[in-house]
């Protein structure tokens, strides 16, 4: 057998390399990669000394023979003899490590075959698929079915994608209109068949709700996107109109925090007979756009005072009231659920600070959207304790009264004033624990610029009443 160079082996088909490895008795040759297989063949051939090989007239030294010259014009990659010729006398060689004769050299020497170029592969119809990784020991006959299966799957996926895209384009042409219902998590649904839920309702993402400043009750229209495989409802592809006006006119306006703010001027009138509510209305008044904190130590009655105030405020038909419970007792959540203003978000004291901040953010965002439309919103929070300080300040700062626009009032309980309040309602633990109501701490309570709410005469009356109460009998 002739000793082949690496260049001749690299130019040979994998099937010829396997045949040569089998003749050389290389163990496990089918598990070897191409480069490893060539190294193994060259290593096994190294048992026969090599003088030189490759050009015409090269000298090839065989085991047991002297050097002889190849015939002119015979390629080294084709072997020493041509197929079908009988070997010259004495030209038989022994297999490596064997004591008997072997086959003629041309029976095992691989024929040189130029590797197919990417251009040839494209012309043969294989350019549409990336080349398959060559498996160790896989023959072309074994790899062909795998390539055909992969090509079939790719064509099937392409057809499915094209069909799905066509269906989406057809369905998006259907324009639907309905009423918006905002969910506590910030997303919403477009109720197509009236206020009651139905299978034709469309999902509205939180990003669309926030970008278009949607609130519950808005009448919007837009193209319908059909549900995907894992979805139950279709979605609103985009929002074209809001309450009969183009969405582009409403979206992208000034942010609520960027609008000018003024001190509250319109006082809330609390029509209630409870002594605590009457004392708060007379001595610590607040109005639209106020930032009010009800402060005091534990068991001083902060949650009860908030419940009484919210019950009186809900009677105002022009005021949109919402309640957020963060860090309260589970029993208190049940009590609030039975009240006139049910919470839009409620997490107990076991919730994390991030969960509490998220609940407050949802409530304040909805109130901002109402105020941006020129409405008046109030958010009651029980409690600010346990929130990250930055989240508590951000929520508190959202309350304001915008001239010639809407207002957002925030009423929250806390163990101590947060800072930035326009009204502080402080409760006295000694009075509350002994059942003496109203349990207001007049020295710690007060309203900034009370004359804007009750006039100069009313402010003077508040000061005199507070002074008399502090002096005592």
Topology:
Layout: H1 6-10, H2 14-23, H3 34-45, E1 59-60, E2 68-69, H4 118-123, H5 140-172, E3 175-182, E4 188-191, E5 202-204, H6 206-211, E6 219-225, E7 234-236, E8 241-242, E9 245-246, H7 247-250, H8 275-283, E10 291-295, H9 302-313, E11 319-328, H10 330-337, E12 343-348, H11 353-372, E13 376-382, H12 389-397, E14 400-401, E15 407-414, E16 423-426, H13 429-433, E17 446-447, H14 451-471
Parallel strand pairs: 5-7, 10-15, 10-16, 11-12, 11-13, 13-15
Antiparallel strand pairs: 1-2, 3-4, 3-6, 4-5, 6-7, 6-8, 8-9, 14-15, 16-17
Report on this model:
By secondary structure, the chain is of the alpha/beta class. The chain folds into three domains: 6-84 and 93-118, no CATH class; 171-253, Beta Barrel (OB fold (Dihydrolipoamide Acetyltransferase, E2P)); 275-471, Rossmann fold (3-Layer(aba) Sandwich). 34% of the residues lie in helices and 16% in strands. It has 14 helices and 17 strands. It has helices at residues 6-10, 14-23, 34-45, 118-123, 140-172, 206-211, 247-250, 275-283, 302-313, 330-337, 353-372, 389-397, 429-433, 451-471; strands at 59-60, 68-69, 175-182, 188-191, 202-204, 219-225, 234-236, 241-242, 245-246, 291-295, 319-328, 343-348, 376-382, 400-401, 407-414, 423-426, 446-447. Strands 10, 11, 12, 13, 14, 15, 16 and 17 form an eight-stranded mixed β-sheet that branches. Strands 3-4-5-7-6 form a five-stranded mixed β-barrel. α2 packs parallel to α3. The longest helix is centred in the N-terminal third of the chain and has 33 residues, at 140-172. The chain is elongated. The termini are far apart. Residues 48-130 have low confidence and may be disordered.
